[in-house]
Amino acid sequence: MAMVCLSDFEAYAKKYLPKIAWDFFAAGADDCSTRDENILAYQRIRFRPRILQDVSVMDIRTKLLGTEISFPVGIAPTGFHQLAWPDGEKSTARAAKAMNTCYIASTYSTCTLEEISAAAPGGLRWFQLYIHRNRAVSQQLVQQAVALGFQGLVLTADLPYTGKRRDDVRNGFCLPPHMKLKNLEGAFEVCKMSPPFHSLLDPSVTWNDIYWLRSLTQLPIIIKGILTKEDAELAVRHGVQGIIVSNHGGRQLDGGPATIDALVEVVEAVQGRVEVYLDGGIRKGSDVLKALALGAKCVFIGRPALWGLAYKGEEGLQEVLRILQDEFRLSMALAGCASVSEIGRHLVQFSKL
Amino acid sequence: MAMVCLSDFEAYAKKYLPKIAWDFFAAGADDCSTRDENILAYQRIRFRPRILQDVSVMDIRTKLLGTEISFPVGIAPTGFHQLAWPDGEKSTARAAKAMNTCYIASTYSTCTLEEISAAAPGGLRWFQLYIHRNRAVSQQLVQQAVALGFQGLVLTADLPYTGKRRDDVRNGFCLPPHMKLKNLEGAFEVCKMSPPFHSLLDPSVTWNDIYWLRSLTQLPIIIKGILTKEDAELAVRHGVQGIIVSNHGGRQLDGGPATIDALVEVVEAVQGRVEVYLDGGIRKGSDVLKALALGAKCVFIGRPALWGLAYKGEEGLQEVLRILQDEFRLSMALAGCASVSEIGRHLVQFSKL
Amino acid sequence: MAMVCLSDFEAYAKKYLPKIAWDFFAAGADDCSTRDENILAYQRIRFRPRILQDVSVMDIRTKLLGTEISFPVGIAPTGFHQLAWPDGEKSTARAAKAMNTCYIASTYSTCTLEEISAAAPGGLRWFQLYIHRNRAVSQQLVQQAVALGFQGLVLTADLPYTGKRRDDVRNGFCLPPHMKLKNLEGAFEVCKMSPPFHSLLDPSVTWNDIYWLRSLTQLPIIIKGILTKEDAELAVRHGVQGIIVSNHGGRQLDGGPATIDALVEVVEAVQGRVEVYLDGGIRKGSDVLKALALGAKCVFIGRPALWGLAYKGEEGLQEVLRILQDEFRLSMALAGCASVSEIGRHLVQFSKL
Amino acid sequence: MAMVCLSDFEAYAKKYLPKIAWDFFAAGADDCSTRDENILAYQRIRFRPRILQDVSVMDIRTKLLGTEISFPVGIAPTGFHQLAWPDGEKSTARAAKAMNTCYIASTYSTCTLEEISAAAPGGLRWFQLYIHRNRAVSQQLVQQAVALGFQGLVLTADLPYTGKRRDDVRNGFCLPPHMKLKNLEGAFEVCKMSPPFHSLLDPSVTWNDIYWLRSLTQLPIIIKGILTKEDAELAVRHGVQGIIVSNHGGRQLDGGPATIDALVEVVEAVQGRVEVYLDGGIRKGSDVLKALALGAKCVFIGRPALWGLAYKGEEGLQEVLRILQDEFRLSMALAGCASVSEIGRHLVQFSKL
């Protein structure tokens, strides 16, 4: 079967992954309405394509906090890559480096940060952090990430507790015995997932902890999980360098807005003071173009990256990225933009439907 | 099968209840459009979740007219609980007490008010009243409720006649011979249900009858069935203590608004002068949060309580309440609220769809 | 099978009528979108029901141009009733009289006007007219209707040519040999239906022909087929006594508005100068209530009357009318109205959906 | 099977064409959302039909840049007609001439321009041009079209690269060996379709190339692919004689607007300075009427023409055009318009849905 678009990878993963793993990756909270809205919302955005622009030379590169990447799509932090492919996050790191883009490695990786670094030396990587009740654990992870050359620190702020994902509860989801959350070994008992698992995360984290993180490192801090202008304003005031508009793939609070809808108010509030990114619902190159037209500097893919891994590991993920890259370039050209800098709000309108 | 969410109880009840009982509980008037809208309307409300709030200590308690309950979900008045479980309303009373919440016992109970009281002494209970053509019957019931320690009187105001529930007509629904409307024995012949049944209710009741009720008791009067700002204003002027925004689960006038939609105009009209509650369409903890964000002090569940009873009687109903409680607490935390007092209008927006 | 609501009659008719007859009655033009919109549009109208009104004595009578009818639902003009029931329009006339409402007999009846009159002497009837190229034919019909005691003249104005009803074309629809358009015998050859059939109607009819009609009779003239405020204004200026907002059951121009939607602008334009009625999409008593709330004085049913005939002739049609009557009375009571005069615009709102 | 409406031809073509050809004709870009929107958008437009207009004499003729055609529907440029019918574009030319309308012959025809001209001498034809990297090829084609009596030059401006049509990629679509792009023979290698195929088109074309085209010929220049007011304004300023609002049948940038939606802003921007046409989504005569009411001078059909060819070649296409003509005439009459000049913006409104 030819892999023509990202849905082909999704179908493959659904067919070949163990049900418990597929369910875990696919899960949304409660009725999954926010998860599904992340995708549906793109259909309500219409392009206003311009014609007769010289698009013979296309430049789709962009910069993340000053570092160039090949196109404005990175890898969002997701956990447990070994559930998708034996080499786990090492494959992810290799694919991201090969495609010259950014990989945000999750605290909940099944490889150590050292392994990830060693797998693809010199790749652009950020480290995603959950703050634990035992702050020493988090501090140690941050320092390790710094030492290993990670170039950004992504604080996930929308998981004081884990969302209710019905299928995971039904399946009694937990990691298979041979997989470990290697970055947390010793810090707590790994095999008990879900609510007890996350009881080690600190639900008392507040904006003031941004200052504590800042005290640990000079790395740029990116905050992930912002959906309102009020929180966007607070993020800027607390000195972060970037914001990821995210609803955790619809896995946390069901009933929240699609990220592409929330992006509008966040971008308007931020007024260019920090970079704004987005994850959730990206399935086609034209989705990327819509997000950039609405003000995102870059988007990150979560589930599609896992489907790519499930298909053929590092090679599969590269294929996913390459398809997105081709589609993004083509969409840009057909919309009349020869470089990312030409993309703007004028390119899209919200459908009255 | 694990009972993970309220839909699981619904599926169980549909499978195991006799069809005639299931149909009676599930019935909506005419095309059931209002019944279904009660649920669909929640999907058009989107959260605006706030992050990085300290939600380590969650307080989900609230007060109903000054009396504390464990969380803002009570049991709405529904009839004929023995159709769902042999112990009928006695089980309902026990579950409500165990979960420390309010149970509104229906005039159309299959247990006497004495039995209900004795089953769960000290539980917070309100009594739901229909006004009969023979006012002495109603007066006697009110006095009995007062004597038994019921703490509120809920006047159902949207049933001058019974709505047309097609399946009940087709099924020729009536109570099985061994069940009785025990609070009304002697007052009228029980076995003839539907239109003739309700011909003993008084369709001439008007706002002035609130004064008559007030003359019978000092209990707080709560009026159930309000859907407009005009009637909300009238209710306040007539001295009620509370309003339940309700369309009788979509069983009366088909084509009326979803209760969560009507709540907005009622809350705005009432301006905090009396407490406003809601029933209809609550299926998840996040629905409760949406209702509170729009101004409800508490919500009441009807059909889900019956599903819980049908599953395992008092234990099943407790399970339903516990799930709602857990989901509500989690939704609050994920929306950034540590206590009920932090919930407000800013938490939600109406989707343009 | 119990006949509980109008859909039951529809299902019966679909099952038992010959396909060619069912298709003819059910047909809409082109994609049938206007036919279907006639029904869907009611779902976008929400009641604002009022409670605690004295509805112990219900008065659902109304008047059509001064003549009292038992409730505001009459029989719209439809053709070929013998396709539904052997006695054809005679049964229709009997049922309408028995239920004390108005029957608009069609030019395209399969009984003569004399037969219709004789079947139910003294019944309230209006005569529906198509203007033929040969004006003498029309003039003679009008004079006959006057002589037979018809009390109104309904000019159908939306059929200069017949709409394209795909199924009729596929079926090669024409009347069976033993049925005749008895009011037109001699005037033209009956057995060739569809386009050729209607080629005898005059597509050059204009507003001036209202004056010609007026010259023939002093009967009230009601114009059927108005969908815009502009035409409503013209109708009033040309001295008609009533307007039927109609799209011919969606059988003429596909893509036109639902009649309940068009009613709003017509009522607003007319400002009470003439009576405004509606046909199309009435399937429940609550639909009647919505139409009256939006300003219709009365509604007329087309297809449901035919389903009633197909079920049991005059008796079946009475059953249809009785169900509508009961539902209308109940809806009124549940909305808080004890008489038709209390129904008003405040009772409804248009859903944002 | 009777061919009653255009969908019948679609069903026929889907059934009898080789899958690879059907897929190619049916294809839309990516998720085909724009392709489908082209059709769905018509359902959101409602007529405001006027009654009692004299429609006994109907005049449905219009003029394209001064040349009369029998009704405002022409044949849009589509490629590879031999995939639908052995005689290919020769049949198309004959059908268009027989029906006295305009045929826009595609650069990607499987017959030469000479063959097309010879097949139907004297027919009204425009030539559709893609600009090649090798401008000499394009120049030669333009000069040939002029010499052969083509009366307009249509520049397709929305295909700097080919859109991603998933089925074509999966099918490995290319022309069968016995078909050739005869107008381009010698200019490049034909058998390799899709991306490589179009790599010979020039993605550097800009508005200035309009001046180059003008330098080649005095023929009217019509620009195809405009979807915004900004580009409409630019087109007028660059001296074109006509604009075709088009999204290439949804085959280029998925996520763009339906053409009937884009038409509104283009017509408003153009203010009558040049003629505005539309293609995409026309399936019924009433669609044509809606487009004209919103300001289009004429519409063009793409896929329906191919379905007609697939059905019976020139005869089938005539049947398609005749059905559209009959439906358009009937829709006009039912909307109260006796001639094209009476069609205007007042005839339609956008549904709130």
UniProtKB/TrEMBL annotation, chains A, B, C, D:
<feature type="binding site">
    <location>
        <position position="248"/>
    </location>
    <ligand>
        <name>glyoxylate</name>
    </ligand>
</feature>
<dbReference type="InterPro" id="IPR013785">
    <property type="entry name" value="Aldolase_TIM"/>
</dbReference>
<dbReference type="GO" id="GO:0003973">
    <property type="term" value="F:(S)-2-hydroxy-acid oxidase activity"/>
</dbReference>
<dbReference type="GO" id="GO:0001561">
    <property type="term" value="P:fatty acid alpha-oxidation"/>
</dbReference>
<comment type="similarity">
    <text>Belongs to the FMN-dependent alpha-hydroxy acid dehydrogenase family.</text>
</comment>
<dbReference type="Pfam" id="PF01070">
    <property type="entry name" value="FMN_dh"/>
</dbReference>
<feature type="binding site">
    <location>
        <position position="130"/>
    </location>
    <ligand>
        <name>FMN</name>
    </ligand>
</feature>
<feature type="binding site">
    <location>
        <position position="106"/>
    </location>
    <ligand>
        <name>FMN</name>
    </ligand>
</feature>
<feature type="binding site">
    <location>
        <position position="156"/>
    </location>
    <ligand>
        <name>FMN</name>
    </ligand>
</feature>
<feature type="binding site">
    <location>
        <position position="128"/>
    </location>
    <ligand>
        <name>FMN</name>
    </ligand>
</feature>
<keyword id="KW-0560">Oxidoreductase</keyword>
<dbReference type="GO" id="GO:0010181">
    <property type="term" value="F:FMN binding"/>
</dbReference>
<protein>
    <recommendedName>
        <fullName>(S)-2-hydroxy-acid oxidase</fullName>
        <ecNumber>1.1.3.15</ecNumber>
    </recommendedName>
</protein>
<dbReference type="InterPro" id="IPR037396">
    <property type="entry name" value="FMN_HAD"/>
</dbReference>
<feature type="binding site">
    <location>
        <position position="224"/>
    </location>
    <ligand>
        <name>FMN</name>
    </ligand>
</feature>
<feature type="binding site">
    <location>
        <position position="251"/>
    </location>
    <ligand>
        <name>glyoxylate</name>
    </ligand>
</feature>
<dbReference type="InterPro" id="IPR008259">
    <property type="entry name" value="FMN_hydac_DH_AS"/>
</dbReference>
<feature type="binding site">
    <location>
        <begin position="302"/>
        <end position="303"/>
    </location>
    <ligand>
        <name>FMN</name>
    </ligand>
</feature>
<dbReference type="InterPro" id="IPR000262">
    <property type="entry name" value="FMN-dep_DH"/>
</dbReference>
<feature type="binding site">
    <location>
        <begin position="279"/>
        <end position="283"/>
    </location>
    <ligand>
        <name>FMN</name>
    </ligand>
</feature>
<keyword id="KW-0285">Flavoprotein</keyword>
<keyword id="KW-0288">FMN</keyword>
<feature type="binding site">
    <location>
        <begin position="77"/>
        <end position="79"/>
    </location>
    <ligand>
        <name>FMN</name>
    </ligand>
</feature>
<feature type="domain" description="FMN hydroxy acid dehydrogenase">
    <location>
        <begin position="1"/>
        <end position="353"/>
    </location>
</feature>
<dbReference type="InterPro" id="IPR012133">
    <property type="entry name" value="Alpha-hydoxy_acid_DH_FMN"/>
</dbReference>
<feature type="active site" description="Proton acceptor">
    <location>
        <position position="248"/>
    </location>
</feature>
<dbReference type="GO" id="GO:0005782">
    <property type="term" value="C:peroxisomal matrix"/>
</dbReference>
<feature type="binding site">
    <location>
        <position position="246"/>
    </location>
    <ligand>
        <name>FMN</name>
    </ligand>
</feature>
<feature type="binding site">
    <location>
        <position position="165"/>
    </location>
    <ligand>
        <name>glyoxylate</name>
    </ligand>
</feature>
